[in-house]
Design brief:
globular; binds NADP nicotinamide-adenine-dinucleotide phosphate
Length: 264
């Protein structure tokens, strides 16, 4: 029997890419209900219709970068289900550009969506998890939580911050029955790179990118794991180890490779 049977799951960024695939995979695990959260109602309705014969589902149009919208969403969710077992903080965006060229609004948008959005959603469901003494918070970061990439400073900053916040939170929640796991994928074939700022810059790297399903499988594994961070694919943990051990060799290579792409 699935360990996830009967669970109530919230997935942010559920309208597309990794989030959509995560919803479809949880639905296969006999969960009780999945709550889909993102801004685009039509795309969430489409995803919800794909799981209608598997479990209950609710859709909530909500901008996670807006704390009052997040509070409203959580109030409605908790009035129906009174407890959320698994929260997947997956909503995120990237905007490509050098810090000197980006507006403060662009930097704020990335930071508020990826980092503060994760915190807003965590805060609104944490009390009910503490009350029930059970829960799992899964934060989707990136390999960009371990490597600073030129052209993605705000994005990398938000993902480094997610990892640091999650590590602290995991320590704070020790012994409460609530776990925190970060899932950190390398490049994934999704709509992420459709933002106009990317142009064709990542086109020739796309052939190395993962299928979103590969990442959603890791998110499902994360929901029953005690680990703080799951790197996808697992062997990229070797790359992170190398970066942390010999940064004076790895950083110039990363910098050179992405600067060239940025300036092309
Ligand atoms: N693709 C990659 O290469 C890659 C690699 C590592 C990590 N990641 C991370 O994976 C996560 C999912 O991205 P993806 O690759 O699946 O990209 P995607 O296909 O563009 O999906 C992003 C999702 O986030 C939602 N979203 C964006 N801004 C939002 C906001 N303010 N409020 C609520 N929802 C919002 C989008 O829905 P709406 O537009 O409907 O709001 C969409 O459902 C992100 O956190 C991203 O940083 C991606």
């Amino acid at each position: 029997m699935s360990k996830l049977r009967g669970k109530t799951v919230v997935v942010t960024g559920a309208s597309s890419g990794i989030g959509r695939s995560t919803v479809l995979d949880f639905a296969e695990k006999q969960v009780k209900a999945i709550i889909l959260v993102s801004r685009n109602k039509e795309r969430m309705s489409q995803v919800s219709s794909e799981i209608s014969d598997k479990c209950e589902s609710m859709i909530f149009p909500c901008d996670v970068s807006n704390n009052s919208e997040v509070s409203k969403m959580a109030n409605e969710v908790l009035s129906v289900y009174d407890h959320v077992d698994i929260l997947v903080n997956n909503a995120g965006i990237g905007i490509l550009g050098k810090v000197a060229d980006q507006s403060i609004e662009e930097i704020e948008q990335v930071t508020k969506t990826n980092y503060l959005g994760m915190i807003y959603c965590t805060k609104v469901f944490l009390d009910s998890m503490l009350r029930e003494k059970t829960g799992h918070i899964i934060n989707v970061a990136s390999l960009a939580a371990s490597f600073g990439i030129p052209g993605l400073a705000a994005y990398c900053g938000s993902k480094f911050a997610i990892l640091g916040f999650s590590e602290s939170l995991q320590h704070e929640l020790h012994g409460t029955g609530i776990r925190v796991t970060v899932v950190s994928p390398i490049g994934v074939k999704t709509n992420f790179f459709q933002h106009s700022s990317f142009g064709n810059k990542f086109k020739n790297r796309e052939r190395f990118f993962l299928d979103p399903h590969y990442v959603s499988k890791a998110i499902i594994r994360a929901s029953t794991s005690n680990r703080l961070e799951i790197v996808v694919p697992f062997y990229m943990r070797g790359g992170i180890w190398l970066k942390n051990t010999i940064p004076f060799i790895v950083n110039p290579i990363v910098g050179f490779s992405f600067r060239r792409m940025l300036d092309d």
